[in-house]
Every structure is written in C-alpha cells, then in structure tokens.
Amino acid sequence: MEILKQRILKDGNVKEGNVLKVDSFLNHQMDIRLLDEIGKEFRRRFDGEGVNKILTIEASGIGIAVAVAQHFDYAPVVFAKKSKSKNLDGELYTSKVTSFTRGTTFDVQVSKKYLNPGDRVLIIDDFLAKGQALMGLLDIVAQSGATTVGCGIVIEKGFQEGGQMLREKGIRLESLAIIDHFEDGHVVFRN
Ligand code: 5GP
Questions:
Q1: CATH number at residue 37
Q2: What backbone phi and psi angles, to 5 degrees, belong to 84?
Q3: Is the pLDDT at 144 greater than 70, yes or no?
Q4: Which of 71, 128, 136, 186 is placed for a possible disulfide with 95 were both Cys, Cβ 3.0 to 4.6 Å?
Q5: Domain housing 173
Q6: Residue of the nearest CA to atom 11 in ligand 1?
C-alpha cells in the first residue's frame, strides 16, 4: 500500500532492537485519514469473505480495528485484554503471549460471550514480528469454534519469523507494508 509505505519512510523511526516507531501516525497519535485508507484496503483484500467480526489485541490494535470495521458494515470489534480485569466477568478464552517489544509473557483474554461458532473473524494488528500476538488470537478463535478468515497486518517485519511461520500453517495473512530489512537506520521494503 503505497501511501502507507511513503508515510513510514517519511515519519517512521528505526530504534535499537529492530523496533520501528510509528508513534506520530499509528501507535500514539493516529492519522484517521490514513486509518480509513487502511480500512478500505483490508476490505478490498477480504471482500466477499463474509467477515462479521473483527478481533484485535489492546492497545495499539484497537484504533486500527475500529477503522477497519467501518468498511465491513460496522462489524463489532472485539479486543483481547492483556490483564485480568474486574470488568471481565463470566467465562473467558485465554491464551499465552510473549511480547516482542517488552519481552514479557502474559495471558490474553476474551469473554466467551463475544466469539461464537458461527462467527467469521478477521484478525487485525499493527505489527507482525515473531507472530506471538497473532498465535494467541488465532488460538482464542479456535477455542471458540469460530472461523478465522485471515489476518490483516499494517506493518510486517519480513526479516522476523512470524510471517513465514503463519503462512506455512496455511493462514491467510495480508500485510499492507512488508519491511525487508533496516539499513543504516532506514527502512527497506520488500516488493
Ligand atoms: P509479535 O507478537 O509478532 O512478535 O509482535 C507483534 C506485537 O509486538 C505487535 O502487537 C506490536 O504491538 C509489537 N511490535 C512488534 N514489533 C514492533 C515494532 O517494530 N514497532 C512497534 N511499534 N511495535 C512492535
């Protein structure tokens, strides 16, 4: 997605530890016009798949998922929570995730009320690195008996193993920008 790639080149910052910061338009301040274009693009790619629910993980995925849902007939957005909160009552689907950016392992949880066997779920996240976050979300959808239509990722770091691992499992993965590598602090995309 060309406008996304141009924006990453203009405003993205490469940090130590293979981390790309996109705080000015995606992860902290959010550019809503860009998010709307991202939503449109995922609709184009997953059109006709009968998506009726969007699943993401807090916190960075939520804003993106909302923008995407508007292009899927305002499908409900469910976000997996990272900590057990008092607001989560009833039974939960739970899966373990190790965070790439924080290096910690935590449970992600979704109330059983919000995922059902008939659901056709599109999983959305901001970044794909080692694939841990997506594996957790895929596991939760599988536990619920719903169907994962595919995963939509805004920025895939193609030099980390997540993308290959998930594609080898036969999961449909659509990434709007795939980074091949970082070179002298600059982003180089894969074509
Ligand atoms: P994974 O589970 O695929 O290893 O990592 C994905 C998660 O880690 C994403 O939800 C995202 O929040 C975070 N993440 C991974 N790599 C980056 C990065 O380069 N920049 C930012 N901002 N977040 C990242």
A1: 3.40.50.2020
A2: -70, 115
A3: yes
A4: 136
A5: 2-189
A6: 127
Using CA positions, which residue lies closest to atom 16 of ligand 1? 129
Closest CA to 162 of 134, 125, 123: 134
**pLDDT at residue 87, as a whole number:** 60
Note the pTM of the prediction, 2 decimals. Answer: 0.96
Helices within the chain (DSSP H only): 2-11, 32-45, 60-69, 132-144, 162-168
Distance between Cα 186 and ligand 1 center (Å): 18
The token pair at 73 is 């007939």
Q: Total structural domains in the chain?
A: 1
What is the spatial distance between Cα 162 and Cα 90, in angstroms, rounded to a whole number? 32
Torsion of CA 110, 116, 117, 120, to 10 degrees: -90
For residues 152 and 160, give the distance between their C-alpha atoms in angstroms, rounded to a whole number.
Answer: 17
Contacts of 49 (CB under 8 A, 6+ apart): 120, 122, 149, 150
Percentage of the chain beyond pLDDT 70 is: 97
* Residue 134 pLDDT greater than 90, yes or no: yes
Q: What is the best residue among 27, 97, 124, 126 to mutate for testing ligand 1's pocket, by most ligand atoms within 8 Å of CB?
A: 126
The string of pLDDT tens digits covering residues 23-67 is 999 999 999 999 999 999 999 999 999 999 999 999 999 999 999
Backbone angle region of 90, left / alpha / beta, with phi > 0 → left and psi within -120 to 50 → alpha = left
Q: In terms of DSSP bridges, do strands 53-57 and 19-21 run parallel, antiparallel, or are they unpaired? A: unpaired
